[in-house]
Amino acid sequence: MNKHTTELNFQTITGGVHSSPRHDSAHKHVSGTAVYIDDIAEPFGTLHAGLGLSSVAHGILKSVDLSAVRAAAGVVAVLTHDDVPGVNDISPSYMNDDPVLASGKVEFHGQPIFCVIAETREQARRAARLAKIEYEELPAEIDIWDLDVSTHRQVVTPLTLERGDAAVALADAPRRLNGRMRLGGQDHFYLEGQVSLAVPGEDDDVIVYCSTQGPSETQHMIAHALGVPSNAVTVEVRRMGGGFGGKETQANQCAAIAAIAAKKLKRAIKIRLDRDEDMVATGKRHDFAIDYDVGFDDEGRILAIDYTFALRAGFSADLSGPVGDRALFHCDNAYFLPHVRAKSAPLYTNTVSNTAFRGFGGPQGMVGAERVIDEIAFAVGKDPLEIRKLNFYDAMGVDGERNLTPYHQKVEDCIIQRIVAELEESADYAGRRHAIQEFNDKSRFVKRGMALTPVKFGISFTKTESNQAGALVHVYTDGSVHMNHGGTEMGQGLHLKVAQVVAEEFQIDLDRVKITATTTAKVPNTSPTAASSGADLNGMAAQDAARQIKERLIAFASDSYKVSRDEILFLPNRVRIGSVEISFAELVKKAYMARVQLSAAGFYKTPKIHWDRSKGRGHAFYYYAYGAACSEVSVDMLTGEYIVERTDILHDTGRSLNRVIDIGQVEGGFIQGMGWLTTEELWWDGKGRLRTHAPSTYKIPLASDRPKVFNVALTDWSQAYEPTIHRSKAVGEPPLPLGLSVLHALSDAVASVADHRICPRLDAPATPERVLMAIERLKAEKG
Amino acid sequence: MGATIRRELRFILNGQDIALTGIAPDQTLLDWLRLSRQLKGTKEGCAEGDCGACTVLVGRLTPRGSLVYESVNACIRFLGSLDGCHVVTVEHLSASEGHLHPVQQAMVDFHGSQCGFCTPGFIMSLYGLWMQTPSPTDQQIETALQGNLCRCTGYEPILRAARAISTYGGTDGDPLLRERETMIKRLNGLRDGARVEIGEGKDLLVVPADLDDFASILEASPNATVVAGSTDVGLWVTKQMRDITPVVFITGLDEMKSMTMTDGLVTIGAGVTYSDAVSVLSQHIPSLAELIARIGGQQVRNMGTIGGNIANGSPIGDMPPPLIALGATLTLRRGAKRRTLALQDFFVAYGKQDRQPGEFIEAVHVPVPQGSEKFAIHKVTKRRDEDITATLGAFRLTLAEDGTVASACIAYGGMAATPKRAFAVEAALIGRPWTEATVEAAMEKYADDYQPLSDMRATAEYRALVAKNLLLRFYMETTSRPAPVKVSRYEAA
């Protein structure tokens, strides 16, 4: 028995791919010992920075009197744009429109103008309020709703996607309608705000510990602002307390300020934004105004569509160009659009510059697609789910006519039909549809609604050069492995997944692989951990590094044991060489003695993809991830308050590297998407001040907002169509738009007040107020 | 007269006795833990008591001498409020043997953490819950977690963990339960009946010896900031960076924590926290207890006081409208002098209350609705829990034998510059039959009573519409309809 058990254990490693080890830091999270930037032991003499922010939305800086700030208790220095030794710019799009500290003018309320360095953080914050700044106020554009997209200034060149002839097909369509939708933005509300600790070194050197999703970009921005080569700057991050896209470019400002101050004062500098400052001064998910003009037949099949996606870019380009692009890339969601024209309009406004947020414009595009589906369903008098199914792309394996995207990429891996069919069955869509009708017939003040919405999400950076990754793997003489790669950990379990890949490659237990902080000194020129690409790219790069070492071990063993290469097998924690078995550690030790290099840098670039923005054509995505959600809600007809009664999700992660991690991403992504579309409301006043700038006023979901019944499953039958890392699929962003099922369930409940004859056109976020106002509108229209 | 004066603040941090002399009156517990004690497990997420990343437990002796541990927000809790208390941080849970506490192990095993930044706060909230309720219902878990935000997990795995904690073994090895008797002795040892004074002049921090001592201190220094729960004053410091000195901490005054029930009147001491009030109110005025479950998070309810909610005079405080509707009165005290005032007369104008310099609210007296009275409270918010009121209506009504409305007392929050009665609406109801037609007619009168504002919580139009609709809801629920009249997450108890 014992022997047998040992034998079994010996047949698999612990923690390889397709197993479900828990998050590598879980025991540290729960005991409070996981170290975030603000927890790092501060170097002796560390000083603290506070920011002075603009109090107008748009204006010329007439005078900036900082004498009281300088004189305040504990203040060591005050920095302005004059103190930026290099270029006063951290524009990630190289537009030179994103100053580190404002110079001459301010373009949004909350823009950093100066920085105070003091002995304590509290002193710095207090001193920052003592500035006397005079502005010559200029007219400010805050909202995009009334802006003319054809004349208003755009922060970058917009994109137009075109396939077929939308104008002609619209004119010829038997049915046609148009409309407009308002879609709100979203604050990331990572629990750990923006924070950096800069430690000056000799010569030009500086090390910056920064809560950033893009250490390489942060490094390059710091070097740019300092006017030093990139090799002088090291950026390191072990983990973030949440990112969600909000630390892709938005970490750079604090990092640059801390580095500039550290070099100037030759002291370590820490900057940690207060929550209110963080929400006011850093970018968010773009809000959109979506115009649609759709032609369809009597069955509800889409024939042609013309879209305009206007987005609030804010005062600078940041990532608004590619975010608008990705909205267009997802304006089809899972539906074939025979003739389509879609254009983006990233509009300049005097608000904080909006940025990446999980989904990166994709979810906004899909919201537009689903609104159109709703409109058609009400127009032809069918259940929206029927319209959805009618318009899907051809399923994988069907070589039909309905598989070309608006950007001319062929959809080859479509599995949405099977996902939706299975979910319809498991969620008992038909049965509950009937029960809801019965309930609503009897209930005057509470109405129920339900919706099943699909997700198809394109995986790859559309910026081609970002689709590369590096990794560095060392094997030490005791057989333990040290792993490093360019991806960053923000809670998504990336380090764990990549470690699983390395463990699998060497066939050693996961606990033999050491996870280390991401640092630009080990792996250079990495892409931000974004676009759901972390495991796809870095897993491959780490696998490449491990394989190089493995190859050398095989060559060595073949040589020294005089066996052919195919007689060498990496078994769990041991290696079979001909008829001999030795432990992995023993082989490593022998290889070392024979002077075999036990370290390797790995590299990966995604094959197949290309994208020509000027033509609007290309193979923009390596593959697609799919999913679907079915949500049921109860809505209070007197107040618009609601409850999510039940949500069922079936989501595709290919052959999951780690099911529990992936389920966590699906559950969390859904709730975050639901929050975006329901209670999270960014509200600016007439002066351009964001008034929902803290959790007291900005309401992300709570535990008690979860669906009362929440069933989440992964497709256990799918695998990536392309040879991704162990045929898994990306999972960071695709689950977020599953939250659309809640918006549409609310819409369905609202529609019941007019017997489902009028499309509710429920805008987002669907706060209780928007829901009630939609109810009132339908009551009035119904007459 | 002449309480002995002690010039150091004493409390216990995890296992250690702490005696502090040179501290600022507005020093927060969170900054002290992280900066002075290098206890970095407790995190700052918002510095305003809304996200829970800073959650710690505070143990205190109740007036009856038992020891209770409650979750609180360290970010807005001042050190001055901790005299005689036991502060417990996440470091205390697994420090001794290094292995994880059941609460922690469950969170690990059920994947309750992703980025991990909120996690220590969740651990402490769940720990507080588990000590009091080892096998909680989902409703109890969700209520205990209203003050903890997680942006990664979607909460589902945290709920799974919370349900499973008690399966990880008993309470034997728990550090707080094991030391309970010793800790009661140690905390009793800290109670010397002295007044605590630290600093002087402008920088004075005072913890009065008792209620009379407080009354005389405030009479002598009417400009002092009085701090009870600090759920509002805390933000004056962390967000507005206001100078609040000198500060008088009344958090620990037992005499202000009493609740009595006599002759149909519940008397609530001004220092009674929301959490303290729930058990008594749920017996006598259940709808008020239900409302409390929607005020702040558990941490805020464990700190915030009903007296403070009244004293701060906010137009969106949740206690005043129902208390006005119930006809509550206040005892105001200045030195040895007391006066009684109807609560509805306390609120004079926005930011202005009928309170003299040196005067404070000592207690609020709340008539319990009699059997024949209909009473309800409806609070409307953007997010159901832990959100500030957009509109809150409180309704008390009696019917005559002929079915007409004999009396009506209706008050709203969020509709005017102060909590305010709906006199025109009441007039439209009184003397008329309690029917939907009467209600609809009365709904037209709201415009006479209220001209609400638009802000980030709601537009004026929405407030006006919902306020009216709440009267209709009140009518429907008082006339026993079979179908639901509002959405509800939890089945009625």
Automatic annotation (TrEMBL), chain A:
The keyword Nucleotide-binding does not apply. Keywords: 2Fe-2S, Iron, Iron-sulfur, Metal-binding, Molybdenum, Oxidoreductase. InterPro entries: Ald_Oxase/Xan_DH_a/b (IPR000674), Ald_Oxase/Xan_DH_a/b_sf (IPR036856), Ald_Oxase/xanthine_DH-like (IPR016208), AldOxase/xan_DH_MoCoBD1 (IPR008274), AldOxase/xan_DH_MoCoBD2 (IPR046867), AldOxase/xan_DH_Mopterin-bd_sf (IPR037165), Xanthine_DH_Mopterin-bd_su (IPR014309). Its cofactor is [2Fe-2S] cluster; Mo-molybdopterin cytosine dinucleotide; Mo-molybdopterin; FAD. Signal peptide: none annotated. One of its GO terms (molecular function) is iron ion binding. It holds the Pfam family MoCoBD_1. Residues 31-139 form the Aldehyde oxidase/xanthine dehydrogenase a/b hammerhead domain. It comes from the Bacteria. Belongs to the xanthine dehydrogenase family. This is Xanthine dehydrogenase. It comes from Rhizobium grahamii CCGE 502.
TrEMBL record, chain B:
NCBIfam families: xanthine_xdhA (TIGR02963). It comes from the Bacteria. GO terms for molecular function: 2 iron, 2 sulfur cluster binding; FAD binding; iron ion binding; xanthine dehydrogenase activity. Pfam families: CO_deh_flav_C, FAD_binding_5, Fer2, Fer2_2. The keyword Flavoprotein applies. Transmembrane segments: none annotated. It comes from Rhizobium grahamii CCGE 502. InterPro entries: 2Fe-2S-bd, 2Fe-2S-bd_dom_sf, 2Fe-2S_ferredoxin-like_sf, 2Fe-2S_ferredoxin-type, 2Fe2S_fd_BS, Ald_Oxase/xanthine_DH-like, Beta-grasp_dom_sf, CO_DH_flav_C. SUPFAM superfamilies: 2Fe-2S ferredoxin-like, CO dehydrogenase flavoprotein C-terminal domain-like, CO dehydrogenase ISP C-domain like, FAD-binding/transporter-associated domain-like. Residues 198-371 form the FAD-binding PCMH-type domain. This is Xanthine dehydrogenase small subunit. Keywords: FAD, Flavoprotein, Iron, Metal-binding, Oxidoreductase. The lineage of its organism: Bacteria, Pseudomonadati, Pseudomonadota, Alphaproteobacteria, Hyphomicrobiales. Residues 7-93 form the 2Fe-2S ferredoxin-type domain. SMART domains: CO_deh_flav_C.
